[in-house]
């Protein structure tokens, strides 16, 4: 009971699947990692489950690696994925699409539309 | 206390390691020298148009014939490769130990001469998993998702691409090869093909007779069923066939694939004449037998089966039916017949210069005619 609860190392914490930042200045690189909730972001993790490179390469690809087998294990153990990880997994097809991905896409399209409209207006005013 | 922490750390790291389940294919793809396994896809289908079973590259009989034709020249197989300079080691051995060492060298040479696979070219992948047009405009770059599970074979790995248009598709073969090299790098393989595999550079290498180097490099760089691999091999074999320089690949692991390439395209004449010139009668017979196995419906094969021919008769039938240089083959056969019981039916390992000399001393003026005159 209480003594055994207090002797447990992590109580009240839980495992999360999140991104740990690495890389260099102006060059981020994320490791997708299973870690305890209260640990520091880049500190000791339980296991590395993959990586994410946010900068596109010469083939215009953003490389993401997932160890699906272990992700399934940790999700089965009750790990919580964070929002960016859930978004990436949704894009990969492993999870259903995250609603924020859809919302972001719509917002970007609207912004692009208003931008093009503003451009057209400015061109028209310049011509006149 | 520290020991406990170390032990806990070790335990934690061990938990991540899974039992690696290598099946034959994973071993083949991971190993440097791919070994012949039975290929599931056939070149022209298991049965020809007439329902007769055609011989495939991976059949035991075909493999045996090809290994026999390749020969085992120890000097050639263990040719010194460019390595860092070390002082030579000398060993003092008795005759028995020397024989044992030679025997072990032969076994090692046999392993080194294992032929690379000849498999049909791979079909391009164009599988679309999902079309989510609501995601359009999400990003300007593609996302490529690779499955990094250590124990899955590379052929079965999931590699999907999410395009900026929102389409989720499987990655193409080139993308797959590149990404597998990124996450599971293989020694000697580059991400992009080195410029030696451009046509002009290949031609330069062929002119210098360095086919073996190029083909070894190609084996390491490309997968056996990729288009580039097939292209390099085709160019190399075509060049050898045109120049009739079969000796370049004679005791290497690429001789089998070369012979298979020629036999499937029915252009065996050059090789046959070369073998007869070098007194390799047994090899010539194996070649004709292989031809009959691969093309069981050809005139040559049917006649051979009818007459139950063996030895020189096989060659005669082949010369009649299939070859364009029948004149030279018949002449060579006549020389062998005239020499009577002096035929040594085991293929001599000596160099062609020595065998010509040997022929002149034992058979007088019956030297080997120049086949180019026919």
TrEMBL record, chain A:
It is found in: Mitochondrion. Its main location: mitochondrion. The keyword Calcium does not apply. It holds the Pfam family Ribosomal_S16. SUPFAM superfamilies: Ribosomal protein S16 (SSF54565). It comes from the Eukaryota. Keywords: Mitochondrion, Ribonucleoprotein, Ribosomal protein. One of its GO terms (molecular function) is structural constituent of ribosome. InterPro entries: Ribosomal_bS16, Ribosomal_bS16_dom_sf. GO terms for cellular component: mitochondrial inner membrane; mitochondrial small ribosomal subunit. Gene3D superfamilies: 3.30.1320.10. The keyword tRNA processing does not apply. One of its GO terms (biological process) is mitochondrial translation. Belongs to the bacterial ribosomal protein bS16 family. HAMAP family: Ribosomal_bS16. NCBIfam families: S16. This is Small ribosomal subunit protein bS16m. It comes from Electrophorus electricus. The lineage of its organism: Eukaryota, Metazoa, Chordata, Craniata, Vertebrata.
């Amino acid at each position: 009971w209480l003594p055994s609860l207090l002797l447990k190392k992590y109580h009240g914490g839980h495992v999360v699947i999140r991104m740990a930042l690495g890389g260099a200045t102006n060059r981020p690189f994320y490791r997708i990692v299973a870690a305890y909730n209260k640990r520091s972001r880049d500190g000791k993790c339980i296991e590395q489950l993959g990586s994410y490179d946010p900068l596109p390469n010469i083939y215009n690809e953003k490389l993401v690696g997932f160890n699906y087998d272990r992700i399934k294990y940790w999700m089965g153990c009750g790990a919580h994925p964070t929002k960016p990880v859930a978004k990436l997994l949704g894009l990969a097809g492993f999870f259903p699409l995250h609603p924020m991905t859809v919302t972001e896409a719509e917002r970007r399209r609207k912004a692009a539309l208003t931008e093009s409209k503003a451009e057209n207006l400015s061109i028209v005013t310049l011509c006149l | 206390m520290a020991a406990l922490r170390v032990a806990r750390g070790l335990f934690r790291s061990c938990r991540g390691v899974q039992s690696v389940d290598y099946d034959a294919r994973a071993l083949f793809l991971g190993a440097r020298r791919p070994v012949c396994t039975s290929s599931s896809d056939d070149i022209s289908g298991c049965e020809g148009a007439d329902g007769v079973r055609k011989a495939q590259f991976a059949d035991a009989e075909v493999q045996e014939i090809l290994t026999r034709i390749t020969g085992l020249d120890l000097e050639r197989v263990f040719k010194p490769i460019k390595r860092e300079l070390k002082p030579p080691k000398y060993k003092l051995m008795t005759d028995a130990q020397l024989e044992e060492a030679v025997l072990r060298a032969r076994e090692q040479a046999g392993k080194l001469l294992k032929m690379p696979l000849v498999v049909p070219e791979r079909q391009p992948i164009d599988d679309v998993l999902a079309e989510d047009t609501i995601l359009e405009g999400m990003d300007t770059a593609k996302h490529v998702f690779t499955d990094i599970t250590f124990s899955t074979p590379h052929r079965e790995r999931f590699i999907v691409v999410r395009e900026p248009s929102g389409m989720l598709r499987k990655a193409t073969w080139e993308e797959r090869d590149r990404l597998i090299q990124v996450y599971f790098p293989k020694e000697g393989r580059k991400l992009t093909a080195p410029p030696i595999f451009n046509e002009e550079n290949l031609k330069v290498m062929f002119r210098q007779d360095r086919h073996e180097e190029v083909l070894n490099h190609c084996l390491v760089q490309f997968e056996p069923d990729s288009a580039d691999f097939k292209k390099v091999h085709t160019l190399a074999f075509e060049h050898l066939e045109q120049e009739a320089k079969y000796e370049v690949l004679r005791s290497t692991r690429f001789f089998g694939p070369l012979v298979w390439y020629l036999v499937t395209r029915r252009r065996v004449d050059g090789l046959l004449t070369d073998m007869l010139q070098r007194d390799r009668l047994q090899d010539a017979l194996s070649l004709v037998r292989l031809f009959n196995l691969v093309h069981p419906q050809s005139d040559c094969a049917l006649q051979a089966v009818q007459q139950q021919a063996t030895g020189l008769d096989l060659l005669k039938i082949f010369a009649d039916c299939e070859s364009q240089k029948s004149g030279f083959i018949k002449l060579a056969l006549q020389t062998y017949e005239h020499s009577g019981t002096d035929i040594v039916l085991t293929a001599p390992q000596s160099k062609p210069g020595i065998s010509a000399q040997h022929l002149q001393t034992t058979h007088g003026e019956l030297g080997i005619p120049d086949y180019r005159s026919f």
